[in-house]
Amino acid sequence: MMGPQHALSGAAAWLAGCWALEQFAGYEQSAIAITVGTAMCAGGALLPDIDLSGRVTKNRGGATVARTFGVFSLFVAEVVEKFSLGVYTATRLSKDPKRDNGHRTFTHTLPFAGLIGWGTGALCTAFGKWAVIGILFFMIGLALRGLFDKWAERAGWVVVTVVSAGAAFFAFQQLDGDRGYPMLGVAIGLGCVMHLFGDMITKSGVPILWPIPTARGRLWRMIGINNNWAIKVGGKFETIWLRGAFTVISIASVAALMGRAILHRFNIEI
Hints:
By secondary structure, this protein is mainly α. It has nine helices and two strands. Strand 1 and strand 2 (60-61) form a beta hairpin.
């Protein structure tokens, strides 16, 4: 899928999950915690495509995530792409095809999603305030680039960077440490998983079962739905129907969460 749909899928998953936790488990969160979690999950849903690099010196090409912070994020994408290709080359078995790029390899696996989620929590625990602000800054930037793609393209990466920095500092000031920080890693990890599910319904698929061998001599098998049912990347089904569905889920979840909060405020039991 394309970047905006990936980001929307992450936002929809987090908002629907917040509603379900509140409805069925009694787990309530503040508005700022839900907002931050949604941004983290939306940004996380773009993160696996950090392995799709562009032309660093000309500030062109690459995936949505790679263009978020201009040449800086394009350079990171170039490094990640080469690292992912290295992982693929080092672990491929005899029947895995040779590759000359690392897109849709290591960063498109469940171990990567788990590592990112765990690493986020570990960084916040080990380095506290500065790690939290840095993570918020980076992930909010991705969320802005994905959820508000048209605005981000017009505004440019400098404006996106400045807005991300301001939003990250504000969010840090408002978050409750006992309820906000542990959820950052969960939200980002879930976003990565949503990205994998999104790519699994396209023709290329993802190596979601790695590092489990799928056959003799195969470790990096691309898993996805049958090509007859696969969606066309950038096609009408993705850009209209899927985007519309994710938007409806997000709005309905927000409405349900706000409705319950308003009723609680006025001490109305439901």
